[in-house]
Amino acid sequence: LTERFVPGLLALLLMVLEWTCPSLPSPLRPICDLRVLNHFIKEAQDAEVAMKSCRNGCSLSQSVSIPQTRVDFDVWDRKNAMEKAQEVQCGLWLLQQALGLLRSSVTNAALHGHIDNLVRNVLSINAVLRSLNIPEYTPPASSAGLESTWRASTAADLLQVHVNFLRGKVRLLLTDAQACQQDVS
């Protein structure tokens, strides 16, 4: 059980050390280090595999709103940093809501640990975005009017979208973040 939590705790420790000891020499700020995101993607993929092999007690009780993962790079490149951040934060909020519903729907104890990890990872990504001076997202009263959303009716679809969203829009936002740009002198 503790083996699953150690990498997440290590990633969180690296972020805290960066905030508390910014004078320590570091080749790349932990909040910009994509290895942390890669770890979150790996955990999301593990959850997706576990869900696909689950036979009992692993269904979604109702369909949920999820973010679209397709990226039109021409449209993405024309957006300013704030628009990109809002799109990613909205997607993370949708995923967090959907994962919460999935957690309450699933009765398979083995999947609870995976889902709990995914929720913690979404919260960690939100903390990373705040550390990059991206304003906190204010969710709407209802997800009904949100643009760029789909509906997922299965847990497998939800988890596949979660993986793809991290690999796509979250990665793009972090690599484009001003604070993460390497100074080339």
From TrEMBL:
Keyword Secreted: yes
Gene3D superfamilies (alphabetical): 1.20.1250.10
Disulfide bonds: 32-180, 54-58
Localisation per UniProt entry: Secreted
GO biological process, alphabetically ordered: erythrocyte maturation; nucleate erythrocyte development; pronephros development; response to activity
Main location: secreted
Keywords from the UniProt entry: Disulfide bond, Erythrocyte maturation, Hormone, Secreted, Signal
A Pfam entry, by short name: EPO_TPO
Gene Ontology molecular-function annotations: cytokine activity; erythropoietin receptor binding; hormone activity
Signal peptide (UniProt feature, chain positions): 1-25
Presence of the UniProt keyword Secreted in the record: yes
PANTHER family named among the record's database cross-references: ERYTHROPOIETIN
Its job: Erythropoietin is the principal hormone involved in the regulation of erythrocyte differentiation and the maintenance of a physiological level of circulating erythrocyte mass.
Family to which the UniProt record says this protein belongs: Belongs to the EPO/TPO family.
Protein name stated in the entry: Erythropoietin
